[in-house]
């Protein structure tokens, strides 16, 4: 079966990233920033309030694999702390609502910035994308936040190489929900049987893509492949994403 499109996961597949969202250093940056905004929460209370808001949002979702919107999580936390009861963030006007939305977006991005330890494309990933885009339509399906997913892809030079990005945070669902994969397929105008998904998670990436009717390549060592759901296995496997091209070509021939 011919292949018309290759769709990628991001973190752990194309991108090497490390973050510490709940660490003392990260929460310390947020704590002091909030004090300038009139919100006094220590690290312990800030961590507890954030965790409670995360739990509340996930439990209220009707979807089996819910995704957070961190701007709404932050809206809960600062709203409960009274930041919306006074000053320039108060009021029911459209302008005040826009200021509150921007404030929470800024907090979500500050949280991500403070949490980042490193962010870089895996060796050979950009060259691999350059080669593939000469022959295939490319897209991304990633579990990520709309507040910072695309800016990070732009920072790394991936966005200019991949024209379509499906971000879980824009849909309220996470992989392996089939709707995310179908969104990318629809955007590319490609049927599932003529597309390959490349990811590093046996369940969310491989199982999810296969459930949507795509073939899937698992990036990682043999230990990762051993954790595949019972009755499932990847259609191909590579240790590093830069080595994926021969596997894609073999699937196209087979």
Features:
10 helices; 2 domains; Rossmann fold; 6-stranded parallel sheet; alpha/beta; two-stranded antiparallel ribbon; 254 residues
CATH class of the largest domain: Alpha Beta
Helix content estimate: 40-55%
The strand line-up of the biggest sheet is 5-4-1-6-7-8
- Give me the number of helical elements: 10
* Quaternary organisation of the protein chains: single chain
Q: What coarse outline follows from CA principal-axis ratios?
A: elongated
How far apart are the termini? 7 Å
Low-confidence stretches: none
| Counted beta strands | 8
How would you name the CATH homologous superfamily of the largest domain? HAD superfamily/HAD-like
Structure description:
It is built from ten helices and eight strands. It is an alpha/beta fold and 254 residues long. The chain folds into two domains: 149 residues, Rossmann fold, CATH 3.40.50.1000; 98 residues. Strands 5-4-1-6-7-8 form a six-stranded parallel β-sheet, with helices on both faces. A two-stranded antiparallel sheet has the order 2-3. α2 packs across α3 and α3 packs across α4. The mean pLDDT is 94.
Please write out the topology.
Blueprint: E1 5-8, E2 15-19, H1 24-36, H2 43-60, H3 70-80, H4 94-115, E3 116-121, H5 125-132, E4 137-142, H6 149-156, E5 164-167, H7 178-188, E6 195-199, H8 202-211, E7 215-219, H9 222-226, E8 236-238, H10 244-253
Parallel strand pairs: 1-4, 1-6, 4-5, 6-7, 7-8
Antiparallel strand pairs: 2-3
Helix pairs in contact: 1-4, 2-3, 3-4
Quick gist of this model?
This protein has helices at residues 24-36, 43-60, 70-80, 94-115, 125-132, 149-156, 178-188, 202-211, 222-226, 244-253; strands at residues 5-8, 15-19, 116-121, 137-142, 164-167, 195-199, 215-219, 236-238. It has 254 residues and is α/β, with parallel strands linked by helices.
